[in-house]
Amino acid sequence: MELKWLEDFAALVRTGSFSRAAEERNVTQPAYSRRIRALEYWLGVTLFDRSSFPVQLTRAGEEFLPRAQALITDINISRQDLRLMHAQDQTSVRIVTLHTLAISYLPRVARLFARQNPQASLSILPSIQGIEEYFDALLTGVADIMLTYETGATVLDGAALDQLAVKHLGDDRMLPVCSPSLRAALPDDWLSGDTPVPYLSYTSFSFSDRVVGEVATGLGAKLQKVFESPLSESLRRVALDGTGVAWLPERLASADLRSGALIALEGDSLAPAVSVSAYKLKSPRGDLVERAWEVFDTL
Predict the structure, then answer these.
(1) Angle of CA points 53, 55, 60, to nearest 5°
(2) What gap in Å lies between CA 195 and CA 224, rounded to an integer?
(3) What is the gyration radius of the CA atoms in the chain, in angstroms?
(4) Taking burial as the number of CB atoms within 10 A of a residue's CB, which of 79, 119, 134, 191 is the most buried?
C-alpha cells in the first residue's frame, strides 16, 4: 500500500467528488480513479458508494477512515523527523525507473556518470509502483530523476507538468514474441487456430499492462492467460522456455531476436509504440543532479 493512496482516500472523503479530488491531488481523473481502485483492491473492500453524489463512504469506508487518518499523520511525522535527522546524501543521485529500463538504459548512464563523477553514485529507488507514484516521487523530492516509458497519455495536470523538465530519449515498441518451438506449433496465421494461444500477461496496474492490455483485450478469446508478472524480464524468461507469447519491449528482446531464441510474431497493429523519457524538477536540485541530468543527453 502507498501513502498516496491514503491521501487520495482522504481527499475524496473531503471533497465528495472524483473530479475535485483529482484536481486537488494534481492528477487526471482517470489516474486518480485507478489509485482509489488500487487501494480498494489492496484492502479487499469497496470504500465508496459511487452511485450517489457526492460520493458516500460505505460501511467499510467509514471504519477505515479514522485508521487512514492516523496512518497519514504517523507516516508524515516519521518522515519529517527522519529528514531532519539525516540530511540528503550529497554524493548520490536518486533515480526511479521501470525495471526494464534499469536493465536496458541505466548501465550506460551509470558508466558515464561514474567516469565523470568518481566520488558520487547513482541510486535506484526500490518499491515504488505505478507511473503516478513515479511522478509523485519527483514532485515531492523523494527522487531526483525519473526514467520511464510513455504512450502520450498524461497522468498529471498542466500545473504539475509545468514543474518538470523532460528529455525524450528514443522510441520503442512492445512486440509479441515467442520461442521457436511454440511458433512451430502455431498456425502460419498465429491467431487463426481453434485453440487459444497461451499468453504471458503483465500484472494489472503495471505500466506495461496499460500499453499491452488494450491489445490483449481486443484479441479476446484468441488468447489464454497462462502466466502473469509485472516484470518484462520475468515474461521474457518464461517466453524463452516456450510457455507462451509475451509482449516485450523491442530493445529488451533485440538480442534474443537476433540470435533466434525468440521470434517476433506478425502484425504491426499488435505492436503498440512507446517512447522513453527522462524527467526532473525544473527547480535546482544541486550540481550533482544537474551533472547526472546532462548524461542523459548522450543516450
Answers:
(1) 150
(2) 9
(3) 22
(4) 134
* Cα–Cα distance list, 200 to 230, 233, 250, 297 (Å): 11, 12, 16, 35
Give the integer Cα–Cα distance in Å for 117 and 224.
Answer: 49
Look up cell 565523470; give the residue: 116
pTM above 0.70, yes or no: no
- Buried (b) or exposed (e) across 13-49, using 16+ Cβ within 10 A? bebebbeebbbbbbbbeebbbbbbebbbeebeeebbe
Separation CA 275–CA 170 (nearest Å): 6
- Please answer whether residues 263 and 235 qualify as being in contact, where contact means their C-beta atoms are separated by less than 8 angstroms: no
Local structure of 74: helix, strand or coil: helix
Share of the chain above pLDDT 90, in %: 56
Residue 241 to residue 281: CA distance in whole angstroms: 42
Q: CB of 156 within 8 A of CB of 277?
A: no
CA of 103: how far to CAs of 100, 117, 145, in Å? Answer: 5, 21, 16
Residues shown for the chain: 299
> Which positions ≥6 away from 191 have C-beta within 8 Å?
197, 219, 222, 267
- Phi, psi (rounded to 5 degrees) for 229: -160, 150
Could you say which architecture CATH assigns to the domain 3-85? Orthogonal Bundle (1.10)
CATH class of segment(s) 92-171+275-298? alpha beta
Cis previous bond, 54, omega within 30:
yes
Q: Which residues contact 106 (CB under 8 A, 6 or more apart)?
A: 95, 97, 122, 124, 147
User: pLDDT by residue (tens digit) across 104-159?
Assistant: 889 999 999 999 999 899 988 865 566 777 888 888 888 899 998 887 666 666 66
